[in-house]
């Protein structure tokens, strides 16, 4: 199938992301001030860059684990059924946990993941999402901490892909399809 041509427009610069992570890290450190060792649970794959920057800024004793839930595949529409494709390596019972998500969109993924993790009886369970698209929400849920609220656009970069490309962009960009861009000028 021929690729549909597109370009990417910068939405959130690398500098703005770094500044926001620094501010959020201070809040997180305060919230977990009694925690010996924080279990940071990254939701693969979109959160891997965010986690890398976040844990280094946190300056806390952390363990990092990963969980992969099914989402878009190679299409741009979210499927409603969430499957766990890769589970955590370690137990979280009685532990202080921070779940790191790239984007809260409809909310189905984070909601299903939280339900699963709560059933394992952590001592404390909070969430951080780099991006939040409140206009798309179908489940009543908000992450404890949010990096940026964004409009309903398809975004890439900073770990987030489009058909497995663009994860390595240092900024968050929105995908603009050339046919739609031309259409809006007419
Ligand atoms: P939700 O279950 O909240 O609808 O979807 C969350 C997941 O959908 C995110 O973790 C992310 O993988 C994917 N997602 C949501 N919005 C976007 C987007 O704009 N771009 C990309 N690449 N993935 C998205």
Automatic annotation (TrEMBL):
As for subcellular location, the record says:
Cytoplasm
Matching entries from InterPro entries are given as: HGPRT, Hxn_phspho_trans, PRTase-like, PRTase_dom
What sections of the sequence does the record tag as coiled-coil? none
Question: What does it catalyze?
Answer: GMP + diphosphate = guanine + 5-phospho-alpha-D-ribose 1-diphosphate; IMP + diphosphate = hypoxanthine + 5-phospho-alpha-D-ribose 1-diphosphate
**Positions of the Phosphoribosyltransferase domain:** 15-162
Give the CC-aspect GO terms. cytosol
**GO biological process terms on file:** GMP salvage; guanine salvage; hypoxanthine metabolic process; IMP salvage; purine ribonucleoside salvage
Alphabetically list the UniProt keywords: Cytoplasm, Glycosyltransferase, Magnesium, Metal-binding, Nucleotide-binding, Purine salvage, Transferase
Involved pathway(s): Purine metabolism; IMP biosynthesis via salvage pathway; IMP from hypoxanthine: step 1/1
Similarity-based family: Belongs to the purine/pyrimidine phosphoribosyltransferase family.
Q: What is this protein called?
A: Hypoxanthine phosphoribosyltransferase
Organism field: Celeribacter neptunius
């Amino acid at each position: 199938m021929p690729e549909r041509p597109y370009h990417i427009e910068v939405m959130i610069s690398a500098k703005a992301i770094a500044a926001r992570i620094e501010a959020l890290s201070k809040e997180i450190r305060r919230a977990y001030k009694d925690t010996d060792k924080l279990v940071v649970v990254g939701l693969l794959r979109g959160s891997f860059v965010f986690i890398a920057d976040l844990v280094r800024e946190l300056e806390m004793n952390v363990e990092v684990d990963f969980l992969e839930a099914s989402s878009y595949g190679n299409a741009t529409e979210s499927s409603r059924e969430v499957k766990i494709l890769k589970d955590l390596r370690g137990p979280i019972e009685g532990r202080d946990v921070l779940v790191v998500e790239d984007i809260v969109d409809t909310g189905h993924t984070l909601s299903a993941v939280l339900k699963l993790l709560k059933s394992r009886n952590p001592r404390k369970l909070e969430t951080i999402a780099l991006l939040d698209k409140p206009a798309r929400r179908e489940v009543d849920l908000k992450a404890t901490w949010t990096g940026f609220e964004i409009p309903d656009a398809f975004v890439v970069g900073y770990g987030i892909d489009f058909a497995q490309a663009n994860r390595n962009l240092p900024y968050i960009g929105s995908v603009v399809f050339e046919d739609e861009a031309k259409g809006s000028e007419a």
